[in-house]
Design a protein that fits this description.
Oligomer: single chain
Helix content: over 70%
Order of helices and strands: HHHHHHHHHH
Shape: globular
Number of helices: 10
Distance between the termini: 41 Å
Structural class: mainly alpha
Length: 207
């Protein structure tokens, strides 16, 4: 990943555009777009002004600050704004890059789409666009899930990595798992953790 470290400045600019694109996708009013974007900047620079320049070349930060917001934005664009299937293809490619670059963030995106689809199916079944929106959410979820299936099959055929990993995981099934402590995080991160899902659920982009 030394290549990423050599292009940190362009990656920083891309991350700014990625999160602005997500904010613009989520909210109709410019005031909310700018406000949410400023909140994101505060959260990023809370760790120091050099955070992006020292961490953006690292796979997890690159996935978190560039690929993940683009994945959410492409999902909302395709599902709620009736964008062409190109956005579904873009979402597939983002999911593929996330899985190859940093697996946990791929599962963040996959589970977020799945949970959002369940929430929409349970709460907004009276919405006039229900029969249009829900199938699109399922298409996005299946496209992202297809990435995992394809990569898993290729890994298994090439080196049996998948089956070996599952067997080793089963051996550790009874092992003690160490959980991180939520209370060690600062107050601003705790607020962000609880408020962000509420923003996604109740903003209802473009509705």
């Amino acid at each position: 990943f030394s290549v990423w470290q050599n292009i940190v400045l362009p990656l920083t600019v891309i991350s700014f555009f990625s999160w602005y694109y997500l904010a613009e996708t989520l909210f109709k009013k410019n005031f909310l777009v700018i406000l949410s974007y400023l909140i994101w900047l505060i959260l990023v620079f809370y760790d120091g002004s050099g955070y992006l320049f020292t961490r953006l070349g690292v796979p997890d930060t690159l996935a978190q600050l560039i690929l993940l917001p683009l994945g959410f934005a492409f999902t909302f664009k395709y599902v709620f704004e009736n964008k062409p299937r190109n956005f579904l293809t873009l979402n597939f490619l983002i999911a593929l890059m996330l899985l190859m670059l940093h697996g946990p963030h791929y599962f963040y995106l996959l589970m977020a789409v799945f949970v959002y689809a369940l929430f929409y199916a349970a709460v907004y079944f009276k919405d006039k666009n229900y029969k249009l929106i829900l199938p699109r959410l399922l298409k996005v979820f299946l496209a992202e899930l297809l990435v995992l299936v394809i990569v898993g099959i290729l890994m298994e055929l090439r080196s049996r990595t998948l089956s070996v990993t599952i067997l080793e995981f089963n051996k550790l099934a009874n092992a003690t798992i160490a959980y991180d402590n939520f209370f060690k995080f600062s107050l601003i991160y705790k607020y962000a953790f609880f408020l962000l899902p509420i923003v996604f659920i109740f903003s209802r982009p473009r509705w």
